[in-house]
TrEMBL record:
Name of the protein in question: DNA primase
Function: RNA polymerase that catalyzes the synthesis of short RNA molecules used as primers for DNA polymerase during DNA replication.
CDD domains tied to this protein: TOPRIM_DnaG_primases (cd03364)
Domain-level remarks: Contains an N-terminal zinc-binding domain, a central core domain that contains the primase activity, and a C-terminal DnaB-binding domain.
Catalytic activity: ssDNA + n NTP = ssDNA/pppN(pN)n-1 hybrid + (n-1) diphosphate
GO cellular component terms listed in the entry, alphabetical order: cytoplasm; DNA-directed RNA polymerase complex; primosome complex
Source organism of this protein record: Oceanidesulfovibrio indonesiensis
Cofactors required: Zn(2+)
Keyword Transcription included in the entry's annotation: yes
Key words, A-Z: DNA replication, DNA-binding, DNA-directed RNA polymerase, Magnesium, Metal-binding, Nucleotidyltransferase, Primosome, Transcription, Transferase, Zinc, Zinc-finger
Cited HAMAP family: DNA_primase_DnaG
Length: 579
């Protein structure tokens, strides 16, 4: 990945059109505004600047450019989001020397072919469902209470009985049969005979967040001791089951609006939840909830409600899931179903009132964890669990908050949790300060000057060369301010956003939002910044001389009298307006 790659993807992708996929965009005065996709609100507070390519929410302070928006709304890391956007925009990203080797190129080419093959297969299964071959499957769906709208929304299909139906269809479409085998849609037996992997099954397409089919799940219609009820695609070049959630592509809009998600296990549970109005539901695809799945959710969700069976296995799975969600900084609640019920049966038999009763009785994640630990563990194991849980929390402030609840909930002392709290004390000590947070009083005026300088440079980047001539590179006393300035110089105003952390991106976007109001006073602001730079240079000189005086003993490198005279002259001629 290069700066040119990032710039080209941005140039070829319309932020406005991307936002329109998720929100109703309208002009309000001289701004384009929309309801924020990242939090629930009644009045539009999400502002889009299409000309400069950034967005800012006045409600939740979400901010960034088109790549940031894509990553956040899809729950992706920057590199993954860039690659997906590049594919949509038709941009060929530059590759590292390792990625340029023939094997890597072959893998990328296969991925492109695989996308087409899965789409062909999904279309074939959908067509089969509504053909004469799919009559039995349609009756099954009707018996399960699913409407045609739900079936269409999730792209359900049917794999007909027979050994080579899909095989013959793909061959007729000139598909490389070896590719179809590698995709897991066809199987080759020991004698070299090819046959369809999915036969006589209701087909659930598994889609990524952009809606591309990447795998399938298939449910048998007639129970048989010889056949498993469900068959799922194995991992492939496109699909890793621990990374994806069934139905997330359909649910993501509702999750973004409500900032909450319902997580369940089965395909049918997800479909039934949606049909009963729970449009923020998705499923874990036959595996325990994983860190990768949590990462996908966390970009546009702050609360996760997990639904589990009430047996011992279900409660243990709930404990592991709650621990991971809390460690990731998410709120969670644990919904335990009545005995012998799943989500589908509960809603179909008793309706939403019964399900809402389960939701209302659900404890929050930490309370559930403590209840389970108190019931199942020895006193020694309780202490060990508490220490491990607090140590695993990513945020020191969150760790301190939960540690207090754990001490009260499990009857532990601060002494018993001290090993975990000490590890977070070390983390907090090494944490970088944020531009958006308050600074120590002794540095407040200096920090304000640095913020003013950065704000001006971000609003009016054409003046950065002049600011450098006047000593801006040497003016920063705070590490955070210096880090942002160095990124601005290294990557340039147009490309710097790709290298900013969350706090820096928010500050960057806030500055750009203010540019139109500051433009009329540009010259006046420039004079103020240059004046401030002179003061900052004088104070930098003071700090250097004071440092030399402190370090003089034992070195003899400078004449202390000369240093004192220089300091006196600086203090005498400089303005006495704080440091």
């Amino acid at each position: 990945m290069s700066r040119d790659d990032v710039a080209e993807v941005k140039a070829r992708t319309s932020l406005m059109e991307l936002v329109k996929r998720f929100a109703d965009v309208r002009r309000v005065g001289n701004r384009w505004m929309a309801p924020c996709p990242f939090h629930q609100e009644t009045k539009p507070s999400f502002s889009i600047n299409e000309e400069e390519g950034f967005y800012y929410c006045f409600g939740c302070q979400a901010a960034g450019d088109v790549i940031d928006f894509y990553c956040r709304v899809h729950g992706l890391e920057f590199r993954e989001g860039l690659e997906q956007l590049a594919l949509e925009a038709g941009v060929e990203l530059s590759r590292s020397p390792q990625a340029a080797d023939p094997k890597a190129q072959q893998k990328r080419q296969f991925r492109r072919r695989a996308v087409d093959i899965y789409e062909l297969a999904a279309g074939y299964y959908r067509q089969s469902l509504f053909s004469q071959h799919g009559a039995e499957c349609r009756e099954y769906l009707k018996g399960r209470g699913l409407t045609k709208e739900t079936v269409t929304a999730f792209g359900l299909g049917y794999a007909p009985e027979g050994w080579q139906n899909l095989h013959d269809f793909l061959r007729s479409r000139k598909v490389n049969i070896a590719d179809a085998v590698e995709c897991g849609l066809l199987v080759k037996n020991d004698r070299g005979r090819l046959y369809d992997r999915f036969r006589g099954r209701l087909m659930f397409p598994i889609q990524d967040l952009s809606g591309k089919v990447i795998a399938f799940g298939g449910r048998i219609l007639i129970s048989s001791d010889r056949e498993p009820k469900y068959i799922n695609s194995s991992d492939s070049a496109l699909y890793k089951k621990g990374e994806h959630l069934f139905g997330l592509n359909v649910a993501r809009r509702a999750i973004s609006v409500t900032r909450s998600a319902l997580i369940t296990e089965g395909y049918m549970d997800v479909l039934t939840l949606h049909q009963y109005g729970y449009e923020n539901a998705c499923g874990v695809l036959g595996t325990a909830l994983t860190p990768d799945q949590i990462r996908r959710l966390s970009g546009f969700c702050s609360l996760v409600e997990c639904i589990f069976d009430g047996d011992r296995a279900g409660r243990q799975a709930a404990l592991r899931s709650a621990e991971m969600l809390l460690s990731a900084g998410l709120k969670c609640r644990v919904l335990i179903l009545p005995e012998s019920e799943d989500v589908d049966s509960l809603l179909q038999k008793q309706g939403t009132e019964a399900f809402e009763a389960v939701r209302n009785d659900a404890p929050d994640g930490l309370e559930f964890c403590m209840d389970t630990i108190r019931r199942d563990r020895s006193p020694k194991e309780i202490v060990q669990w508490a220490i491990q849980f607090v140590t695993n929390l990513n945020d020191p402030e969150l760790a301190a908050f939960y540690a207090t609840r754990i001490m009260h909930g499990l009857g532990l002392s601060e002494e018993e949790l001290r090993p975990a709290l000490a590890s977070h004390s070390e983390k907090r000590g090494g944490k970088k300060p944020s531009l958006t947070k308050s600074v120590p009083k002794a540095m407040s005026i200096q920090a304000k000057r640095e913020r003013h300088l950065l704000q001006f440079a971000l609003c009016f980047p054409q003046h950065i060369p002049l600011l450098c001539e006047r000593g801006a590179d040497r003016a920063f006393a705070t590490s955070r301010g210096r880090a942002l300035w160095e990124k601005l110089i290294d990557y340039g105003h147009a490309g710097v956003s790709a290298y900013l952390d969350e706090g820096e991106k928010r500050f960057f976007t806030e500055c750009r939002m203010e540019r139109e109001y500051l433009a009329a006073d540009e010259q006046k602001l420039l004079e103020e910044v240059l004046d401030s730079l002179q003061t900052m240079a004088e104070q930098a000189k003071r700090r250097e001389i004071q440092k030399r005086l402190r370090n003089h003993a034992g070195h003899g490198a400078h004449d202390p009298i000369e240093d004192l005279r220089a300091l006196q002259q600086t203090l005498g001629t400089g303005r006495n307006d704080g440091q």
